[in-house]
């Protein structure tokens, strides 16, 4: 499990960015946090069965996050968000992060784009399709929806998420 203090700090910052689901994989189990407080963490196994916690696993969170973890061993932490500026880029024709600022340069060669995103992920097939679209990249822009940022640690994934939104702001 992540350090509770690290989760508290992350939650304070994510609230400012209008983020969705926080999810990470630890030893084949998935702590999924969708309610914005560390006490709301739900532990699920690889099939979405609750192992610990008091809430049901939100289906779309599980189908997206678990499939990305399974298909990309580097993705220990997966953040799925609907931040306003990055999401705006997903909603315009040919929306891409342009390598035009210092914040954007850090993403050179690290971003994939899913221009075929078809809506709410309610099956393993859709999660696997997203994982394939992400390939070996750390970041996936979902057409007309939002972004997924993955990383080896909570801190690294959040750092990428924060500066991705900053890069999108100047476009």
Topology diagram in text:
Blueprint: H1 4-16, E1 19-24, E2 30-33, E3 42-44, E4 50-52, H2 59-71, E5 77-81, H3 84-90, H4 102-105, E6 111-114, H5 124-134, E7 139-142, E8 146-151, H6 154-169
Parallel strand pairs: 6-7
Antiparallel strand pairs: 1-2, 1-5, 2-3, 3-4, 5-8, 7-8
| Strand arrangement, major sheet | 4-3-2-1-5-8-7-6
Structural class: alpha+beta
Main β sheet profile: 8 strands, mixed
Beta content comes to 15-25%
Secondary-structure element sequence? HEEEEHEHHEHEEH
In the predicted model, the low-confidence regions spanning at least 5 consecutive residues are none
| Number of DSSP strand runs | 8
Helix content: 25-40%
Distance between the termini: 37 Å
List keywords for this structure.
171 residues, alpha+beta, 6 helices, 37% helix, globular
Overview in brief:
The protein has 171 residues and is α+β, with helices and mostly antiparallel strands.
Molecular structure report:
The protein is α+β, with helices and mostly antiparallel strands and 171 residues long. The protein is built from 6 helices and 8 strands, in the order αββββαβααβαββα. It has helices spanning 4-16, 59-71, 84-90, 102-105, 124-134, 154-169; strands at residues 19-24, 30-33, 42-44, 50-52, 77-81, 111-114, 139-142, 146-151. Strands 4-3-2-1-5-8-7-6 form an 8-stranded mixed beta sheet, sandwiched between helices. The protein is globular.
């Amino acid at each position: 499990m992540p350090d509770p203090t690290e989760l508290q700090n992350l939650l304070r910052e994510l609230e400012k960015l209008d983020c969705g689901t926080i999810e990470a994989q630890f030893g084949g189990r998935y702590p999924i946090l969708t309610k914005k407080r560390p006490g709301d963490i739900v532990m699920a196994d690889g099939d979405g069965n609750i192992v610990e916690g008091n809430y049901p696993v939100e289906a779309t969170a599980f189908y997206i996050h678990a499939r990305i973890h399974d298909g990309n061993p580097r993705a220990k932490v997966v953040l799925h968000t609907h931040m306003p500026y990055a999401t705006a880029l997903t909603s315009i024709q040919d929306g891409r992060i342009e390598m035009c600022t210092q914040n954007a340069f850090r993403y050179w060669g690290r971003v994939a784009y899913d221009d075929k995103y078809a809506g709410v992920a309610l099956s393993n097939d859709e999660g696997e399709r997203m994982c394939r679209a992400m390939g070996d990249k750390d970041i996936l822009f979902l057409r007309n929806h939002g972004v997924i940022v993955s990383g080896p640690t909570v801190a690294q994934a959040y750092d990428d998420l924060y500066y991705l939104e900053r890069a999108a702001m100047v476009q």
